[in-house]
Amino acid sequence: MFSKDTYIRRRNRLRKDVGNGLIVLLGNEESSINFKDNWYHFRQDSSFLYFGAVALPSLTAIFDCDSGEDMILGDELTIDDIVWTGPQPSIASLAAQSGITKTAPSSQIETLLKNAISAGRHIHFIPPYREEHVTKLSAWTGKSIDEIRSGESIALIKAIISQRNIKTSEEIVELHKAVDLTSAMHLAAMQYAKPGMKEAEIAARVNQVALAGEGQLSFPVIMTKNGQVLHNHYHGNTIQEGDMILCDTGAEIPSGYAGDMTRTFPVSAQFSETQRELYQTVLNAHEVAISALKPGIRYKDVHLLACVELAKGLTEVGLMKGNPEEAVAAGAHTMFFQCGLGHMMGMDVHDMENLGEPLVGYSDTLKKSTEFGLKSLRLGKELEAGFVITVEPGIYIIPELIDQWKAENKYAEFLNYDKLESYKSFGGIRIEEDFVITENGADLLGKPVAKTVKDVEEIRKEALQS
Amino acid sequence: MFSKDTYIRRRNRLRKDVGNGLIVLLGNEESSINFKDNWYHFRQDSSFLYFGAVALPSLTAIFDCDSGEDMILGDELTIDDIVWTGPQPSIASLAAQSGITKTAPSSQIETLLKNAISAGRHIHFIPPYREEHVTKLSAWTGKSIDEIRSGESIALIKAIISQRNIKTSEEIVELHKAVDLTSAMHLAAMQYAKPGMKEAEIAARVNQVALAGEGQLSFPVIMTKNGQVLHNHYHGNTIQEGDMILCDTGAEIPSGYAGDMTRTFPVSAQFSETQRELYQTVLNAHEVAISALKPGIRYKDVHLLACVELAKGLTEVGLMKGNPEEAVAAGAHTMFFQCGLGHMMGMDVHDMENLGEPLVGYSDTLKKSTEFGLKSLRLGKELEAGFVITVEPGIYIIPELIDQWKAENKYAEFLNYDKLESYKSFGGIRIEEDFVITENGADLLGKPVAKTVKDVEEIRKEALQS
């Protein structure tokens, strides 16, 4: 965690930006797996962590915009608890570290909020993504479940985004650590995979690296020979010579910051010729996108630059035809690249996604598209210095999509359906890295991991000889 | 999963036992970590899996006790979903595998349940442990949140317990697999730990074994040099010569069955004399308990036998005094053994804990004690052939408890507080295995893992030489 002053400054600005009323930030609860007391690993809500800094379950923070008073409400441990958990620092002592001197038992929340509502004061909260936040807010405010679901404060959301958007230098230090651990996970996967292994074994290996580094996964591991399935969490296949592995994984470190990278590598010591061609195309698109990163450019435009580069490579290979710019303008490239170039990253791997993509990734002047492809681009707005983003172009050959579009003769002027048939079992390729936007361009986060064909093949060669 | 007939038989018996009305089993949802679409690994509800057998999120099963009709309600994937998830078997095809031929979209649930309620029919559900089940049931039935929280069906709970209590031979096969994987995790930990490692590195290693074996953890790993903290999930300490590691971990296999074992081993190649004495005491209590396992004995009595054996050993060492039986009758042993000897195990590591300990672990004639120690014994009732249970005695030296009881001069006739002072940094020891109760006794589940002093030290010696 950062200095006390950092948190005080953040809260002062937040209260000022919101203006008036009470800001209520709900910390997360323990999350039950298959019965109440069997828990997934605890993850504090990122905004709670950002402003309140205490990573314990079942806390609520209330910041009073009018009086300027901040408090954390929650229940201290009893001796019965301590038998099970060991001695723990008190909520009061942890809150004091972020400059919050007032704490109280959670039984006071309801009275506090209901009194405020009676006095005509506004209660600001962000959209709940865990159902217990909905029922708690409903009980505390006397509002119905439906009123809570649609009652989020746009003023609060915007105020939080305006701060968390821009990562400070102390946050960049944390992000470098998170991506360093992420890099180590990727290198481990490339060095570990052998023909005959199950995907689960390689997934287990990268998970081990994250946990041994005192991290967690920032999202479920994608480790698959079927990289064309964008969110593939099945790890039951056995990998063989000739397959490619798409590994999309990242670590989250104890301070809450995330990394998110993807590498695609051959199970054999070398890519096949077909694999190499498309891999190089994705890498070219990746590099074109990185070169374009700087304050002022819309990320949507960076996305489109990458799409054109993908279309050029796909045209050279003969899977697309016609003019690449025109193909992208028409949307034909979405046969291969159905999703977006990247997203914000920070304490959340899709940073602030719980606050809503329209406000996080877009703006009053740039709304999100509803077209196939662009509708999956999470970030479109103008980049600013201090934004942290992922760049992750890919080529995904999805047999079901080929069949459907071929039947419709869709984009027939740009797509070579005949050749596509022979690529149906190709799979998918993605290359992903994380960047912070600087005054003039962008800096890579974390330790670089092999990404050229030559460098990747070198690691695979060594791995297969060991 | 088992044969279609197994599931049909289970549901026939369930409907008959419940008698009338509609049984509604809610499958689990994806569980959000820090924003809606970032999920912990999916875990289906165990009762849903036991009777419905489909391990997909967002499903609901309705079994009609009056008509005998069973159905699963949920929404099939669209082509947009398939781009992200790849082609998946349909709900209908999966349901058919367990003999459920009727499926419908989830939009029909509300009408179905409200019509049934209007017709005066009873809706049976089990106590929700995930909040979204509360709000869904409330919306579907028109009952308030509070009515849902207290509206569980005792008839349904009892009917489920009466089946899941007794593990069939096909379930025992699965449990052996789960405990085999659990055994492998423990052996890996003993072979891997070295002085200078962080606890997190060893925890990561056992997690790797579970995942590489295509399992999951059945509960969060306890891997600590502070074994006296019963539920210790902190992994930040560095282990040193002279420390003991308490490793309490288990795997869950894809069929949903769990393992749960504990081993305590020295970081050095050998236990210290002090460690060896108390380790042997715990092992003796473990063996005494195992020898007592058979149908007809109350598990509470097995627990008390183990407690007396612990008290005997602690008396020999000089930490307790007086008559061990009398000490246990008075409760003095709870200074060292604050919890229970074990619990039911099955698809849940604490099997059916979501159905409530009073009904799962106790009976109409044996109620749970409220005394310190016994109130933490999850299982007290008479054992029956087919029960699967854990046996996990321990000795935990908790400095905070010593200070508190010493100040109260509690159990002074049985506790040697002077000697206890010198044990304050001792830590904790637990030895845990899993058993199925047979017609005449009990069988160990899974491959045996070293547990005698000699066998444990042999593995540690090899580990430190490698």
Automatic annotation (TrEMBL), chains A, B:
Single GO BP term: proteolysis
* Superkingdom of the organism of origin: Bacteria
What is catalyzed by this enzyme?
Release of any N-terminal amino acid, including proline, that is linked to proline, even from a dipeptide or tripeptide
- Which InterPro entries does this entry report, sorted A to Z? Aminopep_P_N, Creatin/AminoP/Spt16_N, Creatinase/aminopeptidase-like, Pept_M24, X-Pro_dipept-like
Keywords noted in UniProt = Aminopeptidase, Hydrolase, Manganese, Metal-binding, Protease
This protein's cofactor list reads: Mn(2+)
Q: State what protein this is by name.
A: Xaa-Pro aminopeptidase
